[in-house]
Amino acid sequence: MPHPASLPLIGVTSDHESGGPGQYSAFPWYALRANYMGAVIKAGGLPVALPHAPCLADEMIARLDGLIVTGGAFDIDPSLYGAQRDASTTTLKPSRTASELALLNAARARDLPVLGICGGMQLLAAALGGTLIQDIATERPDALPHEQPNPRDQAGHIVTLTPDTLLGRIVGRASMAVNSSHHQAVRDPGRAVVSARAEDGIIEAIEDPHARFCVGVQWHPEFLIDPGDRALLAAFVAAAIHNRTTVSGDGV
């Protein structure tokens, strides 16, 4: 196994809870599901949880080899894509979104490898000039149950991959089985390219064709349900390794 100092450092964004009686802490605390970190470790990376500090985004990104923007039980502020908020279906976490957007913009400015997961994909779409469906059930009542009723560590539906995209080449197959835990979705990918769709046409993956590695997926690959999940995480960590050797001057 490589020496820890040689592993690529992968920043993983965290959630934030206000704390209170009966919670983990009576005071505010950060939260991050363990399998995000475990999946990065299995792929050969060294994960580190990132705090909410937009003013330090550039400094954090300067020390990282890759960035994962995670999902969570909240929504992207519609003002980021020029829409009015439907308060009946949209729950915001302004400080988290501000932090993740600052990190994402700093990472993209440095062409750092980026993987957006679920809400992270939706934020990536907004950053690339796209728009979102604020509530699938309201706008697309004929859609699949994207908030699947079965456990999240099981597949909920199939996605079809777009040929000749980075994600399509990574997975190496026409389709894969994924879990599904979202009530919003990408409506218009903006400057991104669509690299996967669900059977009902909902966009399930996007990527920035001008970046070395900038991919967003609507599902949660950290559960490693499909072989394509492991391939995606391995490719992301490989891109982070390449970034590290290139920036340090040890590579090409």
Automatic annotation (TrEMBL):
This is Gamma-glutamyl-gamma-aminobutyrate hydrolase family protein. One of its GO terms (molecular function) is gamma-glutamyl-gamma-aminobutyrate hydrolase activity. Coiled coil: none annotated. GO terms for cellular component: cytosol. It comes from Acetobacter estunensis. One of its GO terms (biological process) is polyamine catabolic process. The keyword DNA-binding does not apply. Keywords: Hydrolase. It comes from the Bacteria. The keyword Hydrolase applies.
